[in-house]
Design brief:
about 290 residues; alpha+beta; Arc Repressor Mutant, subunit A; 2 domains; 7-stranded antiparallel β-sheet; 3-stranded antiparallel β-sheet
Length: about 290
């Protein structure tokens, strides 16, 4: 007849027992008290509002894990710190500190690399193709944050976007990649032209990119029957850079072919966009 083996959980490693003992605030206060000098049970128990048997249990845990030692002389039992086991905990904490400091250093280096990459990405300027694109560059004496707001606040944009005597009675902006950018232009005779597209890139106070080749959500735009073949498809880019107390303003119209570029130029790109910018500055100054 065999003997049934009794299963016992393996004893935790010494360091685990140490930290379990240190997890209790009462036991931590006892160790703080003993750090100055040895003390008897009654001296250690005095600050605590608990029954002596319960307090003795705390002392037993500390002694079993090796953080304290006790000596009985007559009827008085005195406790003192056990430096060897405390050094075990200190050594473990030191190793963990080195390990986590190394990880934090790696994280810091990674974040710095990401920051540098972001700066490099933002600083990259779109290089227009002179055969296909039109460019307007100006320096204006208003801060770029205000120029940005004029481009991204529908109520402000309606006041300047269309060169006078044309007006912009309606505007819809969902400022996110894939979001709608829609304007309605009204001629002096009252004819209205609805233009809708979507944003492609948004870098606050630095760059806006949108196109009328796509509808919101990046869906390819449908050509309207009444405008078949007459729609001017282009991608617009507005870049803002600090220039003293003002702003270096660059607007670019990107076209699919030379014919569209020429048609846009004949329609008055430079004069129209320059006039709109003058109106923008005037609106910003009044705001």
């Amino acid at each position: 007849m065999g003997v049934r083996a009794t299963h016992r959980d393996p004893a935790p490693p010494p360091i685990d027992r140490v930290f379990r003992a240190l997890s209790d605030p009462t036991r931590r206060r006892v160790l703080e008290r003993l750090s100055s000098r040895p003390a008897s049970v009654s001296e250690l128990a005095e600050p605590f509002d608990m029954a002596l048997p319960s307090f003795l249990q705390h002392l037993r845990v500390l002694e079993q894990c090796g953080l304290v030692r006790s000596r009985k002389k007559g009827r008085v039992r005195t406790y003192h710190l056990a430096p060897a086991r405390m050094r075990l905990a200190e050594g473990w904490l030191a190793r963990q500190r080195v390990h986590w400091q190394r990880r934090l250093d790696q994280l810091d280096q990674h974040l710095q690399t990401m920051k540098e990459q972001t700066v490099m990405t933002r600083s990259r300027r779109f290089q227009p193709n002179p055969r296909l694109d039109l460019v307007l560059e100006r320096t204006v004496d208003v801060p770029r944050e205000l120029v940005w707001k004029a481009w991204t606040d529908p109520e402000q944009l309606k006041k300047w976007f269309t060169p006078a005597p044309w007006t912009t009675p309606d505007c819809e902006i969902d400022l996110r990649p894939g979001g709608i950018f829609r304007t309605v232009m009204r001629s002096p005779e009252g004819e209205e032209y609805d233009n809708a597209g979507c944003y492609l890139e948004i870098v606050e106070n630095e760059k806006l990119v949108w196109t009328n080749a796509l509808e919101p959500g990046y869906r390819p735009a449908r050509e309207s029957e009444e405008a078949a073949g007459d729609d001017l498809v282009f991608t617009g880019v507005v870049m803002l850079e600090p220039h003293g107390t003002g702003t270096k303003y660059t607007a670019i119209a990107i076209h699919r072919d030379e014919a569209d570029r020429a048609r846009h130029e004949e329609m008055g790109f430079h004069a129209g966009w320059a006039k709109a910018l003058e109106q923008l500055v005037a609106v910003v100054r009044k705001a």
